[in-house]
Specification:
Number of helices: 10
CATH architecture: Orthogonal Bundle
Strand content: under 5%
Shape: globular
Helix content: 55-70%
Number of strands: 2
Distance between the termini: 27 Å
Structural class: mainly alpha
Radius of gyration: 15 Å
CATH class: Mainly Alpha
Largest sheet: 2 strands, antiparallel
Strand order of the largest sheet: 1-2
Number of domains: 1
Order of helices and strands: HHHHHHHEEHHH
CATH topology: Hypothetical protein af1432
Length: about 190
């Protein structure tokens, strides 16, 4: 499996001219993914921390340009990383908005961790799912079909949160207390 290093991730981020606030968001998503992987490894030893953190850093790789192109940044970001020779990273990026499947009976996966981590970060701050949902509703819930999709996604995300945190010794509300700024963009400037 081919996984870009942190340095390679930041080179791609720079090449794509990502907006600073999107970079800050992606760094925090990666920090949460790192924390969750490390905590969940006792229960799910096959989790690949490097895969999850690299995919989290790159999950919004085409978001900046999507403001002009109106493309689905999860689809085009996933395709971009696949074409660059990182198909596993691309698959996770493709699923960071909506997972292909939600299942409580399967081991936690890198896709689930990145998807969930993204749902816990508003801009560059760790927030509750409810706070993030309110933002998503205001920002993207402009039409009934979007509102319906958001509600379904949110029910699935709550189930995912329960799946992940039933294996941890902290509650979802405590997540922000434990997530450090492990990765910083100035380290790669």
């Amino acid at each position: 499996m081919n996984i870009p290093s942190k340095t390679e991730c930041f080179k791609l981020i720079k090449k794509m001219d990502m907006m600073d606030h999107i970079i800050d968001h992606s760094i925090m998503v990666s920090n949460i993914a790192l924390f969750l992987c490390l905590k969940l490894k006792n229960h799910f030893p096959n989790l690949d921390t490097r895969l999850a953190t690299s995919a989290a850093l790159l999950h919004d790789i085409t978001k900046t340009r999507s403001f002009d192109t109106k493309e689905s940044h999860s689809e085009t970001g996933g395709l971009m990383l696949t074409k660059l020779g990182y198909p596993e990273v691309g698959d996770i990026i493709r699923q960071h908005v909506i997972l292909d499947s939600y299942g409580n009976d399967s081991p936690a996966s890198e896709q689930e961790i990145v998807n969930y981590s993204d749902k816990r970060v508003l801009h560059d701050k760790v927030v509750s799912l409810n706070k993030r949902l309110e933002y998503i509703k205001l920002r993207y819930g402009t039409r009934k079909e979007f509102k319906d999709r958001i509600q379904i996604m949110w029910a699935n995300t709550l189930n995912l949160e329960n799946k992940l945190f039933c294996n941890l010794d902290i509650t979802p509300d405590q997540l922000s207390e434990y997530v450090d700024n492990e990765i910083k963009k100035e380290d790669y400037a």
